[in-house]
Design goal:
Elements (H helix, E strand, L loop, with lengths): L1 E14 L12 E15 L8 E6 L5 E7 L14 E6 L2 E6 L5 E10 L9 E15 L9 E11 L9 E5 L6 E7 L2 E8 L4 E2 L2 H7 L6 H4 L2 E5 L3 E15 L4 H22 L1
Parallel strand pairs: 1-8
Antiparallel strand pairs: 1-9, 2-6, 2-8, 3-4, 4-5, 5-7, 7-15, 9-10, 10-14, 11-12, 12-15, 13-14
């Protein structure tokens, strides 16, 4: 069983501050989102070495496709296809209102049988940089902050009890990131991957988790079957919630306290 770690992250978010005056509604956000594999490593076998291609010229010329191995042309890989990881929609910009899903990158795993003794992926870093700008912007930029989340990939035995390969999200909580409070609203950035599901007991065991730990209880990820392409769609969304309770809620709460006080006095008579 070959194991390798796909480090997905280094998400840099630049937020521009806005004026402190009250606004009637939450504002839209401009975004610039870039993806690319900043590092990758095979097992150093000379044959079929891992290679990067399709550079993102807007993001340090990072490769957006990795491929490796010498295809096996018999059995389940008659077309002689290499294995690969690729991100699509890796460079795009736009404006989004709050509470709306926005298409982000698609991760594709091309999972095909390769000849024994050829190179295979061991580690890679998928770097993502997002610049978020309030619309309209005002004031000075806030500091950039970085988030990193790990996806642990397990290459399983094709003839074993779980032939599909496993992607394990080690810090799933990082997919929701608080932006800040502006003009009476609290903003949060959420990354959404519909394919994320709780791992089965067997998958948790193959990943190496320990039963009874928080990691075991909260394990999330997805699997990619052998001998086919698997597309993993991703989205992001900026949510806005009121930073203060609605006046009506506060009034009702106050009346409730008065009622309790009156009831208490009545019982004491």
């Amino acid at each position: 069983m070959k194991k390798f770690l796909l480090l997905s992250g280094f998400i840099s978010l630049l937020f521009l501050s806005v004026s402190s005056t009250a606004s009637a509604a939450p504002f839209d956000w401009g975004y610039d989102l870039q993806y690319g594999f900043s590092t990758f490593q095979g097992n150093n076998t000379p044959e079929g070495q891992i290679a990067g291609s399709i550079p993102n010229t807007s993001y340090n010329d990072f490769s957006t496709r990795l491929q490796w191995g010498i295809p096996s042309t018999s059995g389940s890989n008659p077309n002689g296809l290499q294995s690969a990881l690729q991100v699509y929609d890796y460079s795009f910009t736009g404006t989004t209102p709050v509470n709306t899903n926005v298409d982000a990158t698609t991760i594709t795993h091309e999972n095909f049988v390769q000849q024994i003794g050829t190179d295979y992926l061991t580690t890679a870093t998928l770097s993502s940089q997002m610049i978020l700008t309030p619309n309209p912007p005002a004031g000075s930029p806030l500091p950039t902050f970085t988030r990193t989340f790990d996806i642990k990939f397990i290459e399983t035995d094709n003839n074993g009890p779980h032939p599909a390969d496993i992607f394990y999200i080690e810090n799933y909580e990082s997919f929701s990131q608080y932006i800040g409070e502006y003009d009476g609203y609290k903003y949060t950035l959420e990354f959404i991957v519909p394919a994320f599901n709780p791992l089965t007991i067997l998958e948790k065991e193959l990943v190496g988790l320990v039963e009874g730990t928080p990691e075991w209880d909260n394990a999330r990820g997805f699997v990619t079957p052998e001998d086919q392409n698997t597309d993993i769609a991703t989205y992001f969304k900026i949510t806005a919630t009121s930073a203060t309770p609605e006046p009506g809620t506060m009034i009702l709460f106050g009346l409730g306290l008065l009622g309790l006080a009156g009831f208490s006095r009545k019982r004491k008579k």
